[in-house]
Amino acid sequence: MIRMDYKVKLQYEAQGRSDFVLNICPARTRAQRVLNETLAVEGATPSYTFTDPATANRINRLYSDGGLVTIRYSGSVELDHVVNDPATIEECAVRTLPSEVVPYIFPSRFCPSDKMRGVAMAIFGNVAPGYSRVAAICEWVTQHVRFNPGASSATTCAIDTFDSRSGVCRDYSHLMITMCRALNIPARYVTGVDYGADPSFGPTDFHAYVEVFLGNRWYLFDASGMTPVMGLIRIGTGRDAADVSFATLFGNIQCMRPSVKIELVSPHATQLEPAGSMRKAVSTAMGNLYFHAAQQPEQATSPLPSMPGPWIVRPAAGITLAPNFA
Questions:
Q1: Location of each CATH 2.60.40.2250 domain in the chain
Q2: How far apart are CA 98 and CA 311, in angstroms?
Q3: What is the pLDDT of residue 70?
Q4: Helix pair angle (117-124, 169-182), 10° resolution
């Protein structure tokens, strides 16, 4: 069991009426418990808060008439990991996949796997199927893509990254997901925080990583090689970055650099597998029916009261069956 403290501060200058859709709160899943949290907003009015039953993504919507908007989140997260021997983990035939997993073998906006099938087959088609083949894909992406902030944009897709061989964690993840899907291996995009990243990569920030469905579980991979996978919290889960942006903005809004902090409370960092290690197969999600603690449906769609100043929301912790979340 791992416990981490996580804090975020976002600031925006809104020029006139603006809307914000935020996805910065850790998901509440069977393997990830939010022990305590506060979410405060100044300079904007909350409109809705919602937990997506299909993904456990927690969405907060705000609006502002203009001026400085400040969002602060603070919480403690507890994680349980399932650790298995990679040599025992096989790929799944498409016909055996749970229905909720099938969408993650399809092409998506930033992961056009249908256009990279030939490339994936040429590089990995002769590699023995199983965890080892996915680990080979992850290692190939790590070795062939150079970390280069500014080399990509919000519209960069996996093909662009394959051609340029440079990018950031988002691009590493998209390329790995695309290669996996091109081989009929379900893969999805997850957002978290880059705990344990080398300071040379810059200040602590939001992070993108990959989950691949193998042997009836979703296993964690960090194609950038920056972060120990056991130190990755789950914020958003989707097909690619289009599904899980930490902030989607509508209006004339100036963004300031986010402040993101994460600290390992227990155990000691030396007990985690180092960044880039795939000696152990690590999972925090099953493939079939999945329980997660979330807001009740009636709470998820009710408007929050209009109020000036700080806003604090503590979602209910009742257990809700989420049959579509894998």
A1: 2-76+292-315
A2: 39
A3: 97
A4: 80
Neighbouring residues of 176: CB distance < 8 A, sequence distance ≥ 6: 137, 138, 141, 187, 210, 221, 223
> SS3 of 2, please?
strand
**Inter-residue contact 282 to 79 (CB < 8 Å):** no
CATH architecture of 2-76+292-315: Sandwich (2.60)
Task: Please report the pLDDT score of residue 287 as a whole number.
Answer: 57
**96 DSSP 8-state letter:** G
CATH code: domain 82-244+265-291 is: 3.10.620.30
Enter the pTM of the model.
0.87
Burial class of residue 95 in the structure, from the number of CB atoms within 10 Å of its CB (0-12 exposed, 13-18 middle, 19+ buried): exposed
H or E element, residue 238: strand 236-238
pLDDT tens-digit map of 215-250: 989 999 999 999 999 999 999 999 999 999 999 999
What's the pLDDT score for residue 303?
A: 42
Q: What's the pLDDT band for 201 if we cut at 50, 70, 90?
A: confident
Ranges of CATH 3.10.620.30 domains, the chain? 82-244+265-291
Q: Which helix (H) or strand (E) holds 178?
A: helix 169-182
CB 316 within 8 A of CB 299: yes
pLDDT digits (tens, 9 = 90+) for 257-291: 999 999 999 877 667 777 778 889 999 987 543 44
Amino acid occupying residue 126:
N
Q: How far apart are CA 17 and CA 65, in angstroms?
A: 4
**Closest listed residue to residue 237, CA positions, set 49, 88, 101, 47:** 101
**The predicted structure's pLDDT at residue 273:** 75
